[in-house]
Amino acid sequence: DEDLFAEPPTKIPNISSEHSKIVASHYNNLQEKGLYERSKSNIFYMRNFNNWIKSMLINEYLTKIKDNAPHGAPLRVLDMCCGKGGDLLKWEKGSITHLICTDIADVSVEQCQKRYATMAERAQNGRNKFQKMFSAEFFASDCTRNRIREQFKDVSIKLNLVSCQFSFHYCFESLKQAECMIRNAAECLAEGGFFIGTIPDANEIIRRQRESGLTSFGNDVYKISFLCDSKCPPLFGAKYNFQLEGVVDCPEFLVHFPMLIKLARKFGLEFVMKERFEDFYKKNLDQGKGLLERMNALETYPSHHNSNNGGNENYSHVAKKFDRNTKCGTVSKSEWEAISLYLVFAFRKMKTEWDD
Ligand code: SAM
């Protein structure tokens, strides 16, 4: 990739804990919308698509881990920046053994814990009594400032997977915070374990900014406003405001990927892959088409699903949208422009001195 960042490294800005407070309060105050509200949203299909990307990524790496482990070995995961627990079902489907959930937004962590409790209860009362629900622990923490391992129930636990979805970019506020977050991911992983995630593609953001020639650009779904020098963004603290239709309105930071690779290596993580969403999608389409269709269909027709509204609403607007295009390509052009801002990544924990 062409590197559009400032070279050599420019000044490292002052660290402000103010930013973390803004992020935490933003996510804490996000309302859990019911199915009906979600279905009316302009990013209805984008949300499904992003969930599908996460499912495919998580499945790919859980499979790699299972393939290399003895049969019946425990499968332990850290969901770093778990939010309200949007990936809990994915962990259940992946048959993991133990999950550690943490996020800076304490209200979100509470909601995540409640969601887990509901799932565990359902699993216990369900038909498949033999499939054991994974155990889990929850705590609120700023992963860019605290050593989160110290908050684990068992501080010496070794994990197989660390997942950080749509969140890692917050740590690129400063070198210190980036190092803290990466060390958090790296130090609890067993050798051969993976660190996976999804982040905005900084090069694509800069490319679009240059194409527009404006400090603010986007479409009816997303808007990015640069809050730093867009001509020569710093390696850390390259701040911009990101707005996404009714969901996000928050300052974020560009992640300079070559820098991430270097820092990860410092903490014993070897670069495995980085792929733009559109390429990852193409690569996984054959295998995951059915899942994406089911995700869209399940969300579309409330009879299949627990609706918060008793299933009485008129879903015709969604059904129409769905019927017009029953293939995977149900996302609108604006949604696709927002989706294609992102990339998936994976790192692998190497053999390191401090393992012994
Ligand atoms: N991972 C979840 C998902 O995919 O549904 C939530 C993603 S949400 C877009 C970003 C999350 O990152 C929010 O829940 C936010 O509170 C969390 N976050 C932001 N900065 C954080 C930090 N410094 N430490 C821990 N969590 C943070």
Can you offer a commentary on this structure?
- There is one protein chain.
- With 356 residues, this protein is α/β, with parallel strands linked by helices.
- 40% of the residues lie in helices and 20% in strands.
- It has helices at residues 17-28, 35-40, 44-67, 88-93, 106-125, 175-187, 202-212, 257-266, 277-300, 316-324, 333-339; strands spanning 76-80, 98-103, 135-140, 159-165, 189-200, 216-218, 222-226, 239-244, 248-253, 269-276, 342-349.
- The strands form two sheets. It has a seven-stranded mixed beta sheet, with helices on both faces. A four-stranded antiparallel beta sheet has the order 6-7-8-9.
- The longest helix is centred in the first third of the chain and has 24 residues, at 44-67.
- Bound molecules: S-adenosylmethionine.
Largest sheet: 7 strands, mixed
Which sequence of strands runs across the widest sheet?
3-2-1-4-5-11-10
Beta-strand share of residues: 15-25%
Q: How would you describe the shape? A: globular
| Hetero groups | S-adenosylmethionine
Given as residue ranges, the uncertain stretches (5+ residues, pLDDT < 50) are: 7-15, 300-328
Q: What's the count of strands?
A: 11
* Cα gyration radius (Å): 20 Å
Give helix % range: 25-40%
